[in-house]
Amino acid sequence: MGFLSFRGGVHPPHFKEATARLKVEKAKEPQIVTIPLQQHIGAPCEPIVKVGDKVKVGQKIGEATGFVSVPVHSSVSGEVKQVTRLLTPTGETTCVVIESDGLNTVHENVVPKGDIGSLSGKEILDIIKEAGIVGMGGAAFPTHVKLSPPPEKKIETVILNGAECEPYLTADHRLMLENPGDIVYGLKAMMKVLNVSKAYIGIEDNKPDAIENMKKAVEKEKGIEVVGLHTKYPQGAEKQLIYACTKKEVPSGGLPMDVGVVVNNVGTAAAIATAIKTGMPLIERIATITGKGVKEPKNLLVKIGTSFKEIIEQCGGYNGNPGKIIMGGPMMGLAQYTDEIPVVKGTSGILVLTPEEARLPEPKPCIRCGKCVEICPAFLQPLYISAYALQNMHETAEKYNALDCIECGSCSFICPSKRPLLQSIRVSKREIIAKKRKTK
């Protein structure tokens, strides 16, 4: 098998050894869940329950308020104790706090929806939307939106991201080993929605067991191909994955649909299969809890709304004082200043670093070595965009295509002067986007 790749990228240490061979365990039932009504890109949900209401597993508790939005469901049965604004991994938002009754009574609406052979594409799309399914790789973009391209955008290919190129994380790896059937089922459902006959599943070559397992799972399927990818970061980024699998380049400022491709995560495909086969919406996910700062790294199936603190305690607790807690991986994850926050749909992992690992080096002046330009997978000039961002010259940064930055962090990783390249570019992107919105 020839392994495919893209231009640029970096090779950070994998740090996956601690959990790569550990089977997924079901986390202990939480007594209290805090379920945010915005766990996705787009408009937040409106609460449709109030304090004192009794709810069941899989019951809708938040209604989507726009097209780019998805409903939110209860992960436990019990009583609503609060509907209030609380801190979440991505900021403060309205949350529904539920005290579990320990019974896990399933809501009456949670019933099998049929089979993809008998369901129409429109019916499958409605099931995906009502199940609250979002991108499970961490971005949490509503899946039904991705599967609803404009009529003029003809989709020819679906790509499933099984690369899991982010260091430390092994949730997708374990899913491909333990539940390949649901991944393929969900992929076939997406293919039917989009009316396409060709699909790829891209997996990095540091997961040879997953490649072989998924190959076996698709050997009788028409039009689905497992593609081995060189292990390189950010191999799992949409545009880079598309190029590696199809040699198509998404244009500057464009989207995957502009080259006839839709990309989703393997975890998303499995969630779609669950929603169709059982009727259960997205109320739990696999997360990797790892790092030298935690005593017993694990892959856990965790209910949405469970606190980080509770999950870490199930992994033996902290190994000394934590230096940093990150939701996701070290390259694109979000650092947290407290563990009193809930697991959300985008929580692919909880990484706990020691104080020594978390200590950032003092940045030095740029030496114009050009390494950030050489490795940038988006073909940008990070040193210039960053320099203009630091001078609040955001219009000039935009001329250097700052908005094309995929925020992978490769430039910051490779920089010998340890410049805050990603952080400054990210600030500039936010300023440019905010200005565009004001203009509109």
UniProtKB/TrEMBL annotation:
- The coiled-coil regions, if any, are none
According to its UniProt record, the EC number is 7.-.-.-
Domain (4Fe-4S ferredoxin-type) spans: 356-388, 396-425
Q: Does the keyword Cell cycle apply?
A: no
Q: Biological process GO annotation list? A: electron transport chain
What positions does the entry give for [4Fe-4S] cluster 2 binding?
Answer: C376, C405, C408, C411
A GO cellular-component term linked to this record: plasma membrane
Q: Which domain of life is it from?
A: Bacteria
| Alphabetized SUPFAM superfamilies for the sequence | alpha-helical ferredoxin (SSF46548), Nqo1 FMN-binding domain-like (SSF142019)
| Topology relative to the membrane | Peripheral membrane protein
PANTHER family under this entry?
ION-TRANSLOCATING OXIDOREDUCTASE COMPLEX SUBUNIT C
What's this chain's function?
Part of a membrane-bound complex that couples electron transfer with translocation of ions across the membrane.
Q: What is this protein called?
A: Ion-translocating oxidoreductase complex subunit C
Q: Which organism is it from?
A: Thermotalea metallivorans
Q: What is the lineage of its organism?
A: Bacteria, Bacillati, Bacillota, Clostridia, Peptostreptococcales
